[in-house]
């Protein structure tokens, strides 16, 4: 065998080896995707996404925070209180007496239940019970008698259910008559209690 033949055989063998090496590289499978990218979505499981709204179902708005309840009645409620007080007629008393007569009890009972139901929702809103007397007797004596009459009315209204702390009492004695004639019918009009709403502001 001469040298050119040896070169030909060596060249063929080298080409065959290179071809075999190339075919092995092509047959190698590509490496798998990094595991970090595949598991990344699982790390977000601590924050669940809200479920989508169902078809035809509107998104529910957040419930509004309720406003704090006022401790004073509105203008409309105050007007209703004034109406009730106007309907609760003055309770009248016998001469030199502070005990409630049947007609006085009836006067105090009228609409006092509704008044009680309103006042219990507004603990800072108060009423004042005024005690009055006729012109006979000294100023000092009638001041004490007017106080006793106002206290008697307050005791009754507390029994009805109106909170005691919302009822104040004041006596005017014979200082604020509604009638100035010196007659029994006029004196009777002055022996009374009268209920008024206190002027308050929020």
Key terms for this structure?
single chain; 202 residues; alpha+beta; 4-stranded mixed sheet; 44% helix
Weakly predicted, low-confidence segments: 22-27
Q: Calculate the terminal CA-CA distance, rounded to whole Å.
A: 124 Å
Shape: elongated
What topology, given as strand order, has the largest sheet?
A: 1-4-2-3
What's the CATH topology label of the domain at 75-197?
60s Ribosomal Protein L30, Chain: A
What value does the average pLDDT take?
Answer: 78
Strand content: 5-15%
| CATH hierarchy: architecture of the domain at 75-197 | 2-Layer Sandwich
| Helical stretch tally | 7
- Any idea what the radius of gyration is? 49 Å
The CATH class of the domain at 75-197 is identified as Alpha Beta
Q: Could you describe the largest sheet, including whether it forms a barrel? A: 4 strands, mixed
Order of helices and strands: HHHEHHEHEHE
Label the structural class.
Answer: alpha+beta
Helicity level: 40-55%
**Would you report the number of β strands?**
4
CATH superfamily of the domain at 75-197: OmpA-like domain
Task: Provide structural commentary.
With 202 residues, this protein is α+β, with helices and mostly antiparallel strands. It has a domain at 75-197: 60s Ribosomal Protein L30, Chain: A. The chain has helices at residues 3-27, 35-39, 75-87, 102-109, 112-119, 139-160, 184-190; strands spanning 91-92, 127-132, 167-173, 192-197. Strands 1-4-2-3 form a four-stranded mixed sheet. The longest helix has 25 residues, at 3-27. The model is unreliable at 22-27 (pLDDT under 50).
């Amino acid at each position: 065998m001469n040298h050119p033949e040896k070169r030909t055989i060596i060249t063929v063998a080298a080409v065959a080896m290179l071809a075999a090496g190339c075919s092995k590289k092509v047959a190698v499978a590509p490496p798998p995707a990094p595991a970090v990218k595949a598991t990344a979505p699982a790390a977000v499981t601590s924050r669940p996404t809200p479920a989508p709204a169902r078809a035809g179902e509107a998104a529910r708005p957040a419930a509004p925070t309720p406003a704090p309840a006022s401790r004073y009645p509105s203008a409309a409620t105050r007007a209703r209180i004034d109406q009730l007080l106007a309907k609760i007629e003055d309770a009248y008393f016998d001469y030199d007496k502070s005990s409630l007569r049947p007609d006085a009890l009836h006067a105090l009972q009228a609409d006092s239940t509704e008044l009680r139901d309103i006042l219990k929702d507004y603990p800072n809103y108060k009423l004042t019970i005024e005690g009055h007397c006729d012109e006979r007797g000294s100023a000092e004596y009638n001041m004490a008698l007017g106080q006793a009459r106002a206290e008697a009315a307050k005791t009754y209204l507390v029994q009805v259910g109106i909170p005691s702390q919302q009822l104040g009492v004041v006596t005017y004695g014979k200082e604020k008559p509604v009638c100035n004639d010196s007659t029994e019918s006029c004196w009777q009009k002055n022996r009374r209690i009268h209920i008024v709403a206190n002027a308050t502001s929020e």
